[in-house]
Amino acid sequence: MSRPSSPPTVLRNPHPVSPSASGAIDILILGAGWTSTFLLPLLKTRNLTFAATTRTGHAIPGHLPSTIPFTFLPDSNDLEPYRHLPAARYILITFPLKGQGQSTRLAESYSRVHTEHQDVRRWIQLGSTGIWKGDGWHDRHSPVDLENPRALAEEELLALLGKQA
């Protein structure tokens, strides 16, 4: 299957924006849930180009008239859902990835469809404070509980991206 020749209608920001000179939007938000309530206004004030996904493609009142329908299926090899997503410089994953394989499946599926801009693409995964071992203050150097499925997915994404650097 070939990609459509015209860009998908993904920049559904009510304020006119267009991709950067490279042809990619600045930020793709995978899972525009609660986080989008404060993130979308910030992106607008910074004049960043963006698109957002939800499972249903519903509007985000006051911010977006619609979103891109997208559901991550961790056991699926189907690349078609990724063809509807725009090329982006930053991909923000806001839904929880769990266990081994999900981070790799998501990043590699997206990258197989969007081969352009891979040298400048950055991935951001919102994590969980529940992955840290012990009580008290934690930072990026603190040990994580590698029996926690979300910790496994976060470590997997970091290892995968380390190979790309």
Considering DSSP H and I runs of 4 or more, what fraction of the residues is helical? 25-40%
Instruction: State the end-to-end distance.
Output: 30 Å
Shape: globular
Radius of gyration over alpha carbons? 16 Å
Tell me the structural class.
Answer: alpha/beta
- Which sequence of strands runs across the widest sheet? 3-2-1-4-5
- Major pleated sheet: 5 strands, parallel
Please outline what is shown here.
The protein is an alpha/beta fold. The protein is built from 4 helices and 5 strands; from the N terminus they run βαββαβαβα. Strands 3-2-1-4-5 form a 5-stranded parallel β-sheet.
Describe it.
The chain has four helices and five strands. The chain has 165 residues and is an alpha/beta fold. The longest helix has 16 residues, at 149-164. The two termini are 30 Å apart. Residues 1-18 have low confidence and may be disordered.
Question: What tags apply to this protein structure?
Answer:
5-stranded parallel beta sheet, 165 residues, alpha/beta, 4 helices, 25% helix
Task: Set down the secondary structure blueprint.
Layout lengths: L24 E6 L5 H10 L4 E5 L13 E2 L10 H4 L4 E6 L8 H12 L8 E4 L23 H16 L1
Helix pairs in contact: 3-4
